[in-house]
Amino acid sequence: MLFRSGLLGGCASPQVSDYASEKPALDLREYFNGTVDAWGVFTDRSGKVVKRFTVVMQCTWQGDQGVLDEDFTYSDGTKQRRVWRITRMADGRYTGRADDVVGEALGQARGNALRWQYTLALPVDGRVWEVQFDDWMYLVDERVMLNRATMSKFGFRLGEVTLAFHKHTP
User: Fold this and answer.
1) What is the rounded distance in angstroms from the CA atom of residue 109 to the CA atom of residue 51?
2) What DSSP character marks residue 3?
3) pLDDT at 3
4) How far apart are CA 44 and CA 85, in angstroms?
5) 87 within 8 A of 77, measured Cβ to Cβ
6) Which of 107, 105, 104 minimizes the C-alpha distance to 94?
7) Phi and psi of 28, rounded to 5°?
8) Which helix (DSSP H) or strand (DSSP E) does residue 11 occupy?
């Protein structure tokens, strides 16, 4: 019986509460404050790397209101800018908006993890697709955070984005 319940438990999706006791504790106001660099890849459904990119983020907070100004440079030479406006709510919850985000992003942090969900208006071959993102961020230490995001449309997985963040320290 133990084997069967362990097998079933392995099929359940992780919840942000699963990380509540993990250290160091993630506070977006502390981590995303100042300059943060990131390196990432987009992989398609088969796992093939389709695009590489770097990001330089300038981040500021005033109380519970944050601005994350992201400058992307892609491996094909294209550039993109996204400015997130994030609000810290009660109980480790966050909301966010950006020009290419449809509606509002919702997130919750517990322990060293953040789950961040939103719909992005993504230009693809001259059209704009509304793609759902399910981001999981894990704080490794005060300077390094890892991020894995699953992209889907109509419930079908399109691929993943993997990022490594590095926070500059004064």
Assistant:
1) 28
2) H
3) 40
4) 29
5) no
6) 107
7) -55, -30
8) none
User: Cα separation of 118 and 12, whole Å?
Assistant: 21
Q: Are 148 and 140 in contact (CB under 8 A)?
A: no
DSSP string, 100-162: TEEEEEEEEEETTEEEEEEEEEEEETTEEEEEEEEEEEEE-SSSEEEEEEEEEETTEEEEEEE
Is there a contact between 59 and 68 (Cβ–Cβ < 8 Å)?
Answer: yes
The encoded tokens of residue 86 equal 């994030």
Pick from 32, 30, 23, 15: nearest CA to 112: 23
Would you call 69 helix, strand, or coil by DSSP?
A: strand
pLDDT tens-digit map of 56-85: 999 999 999 999 999 999 999 999 999 999
Residue 13 has a pLDDT of 86
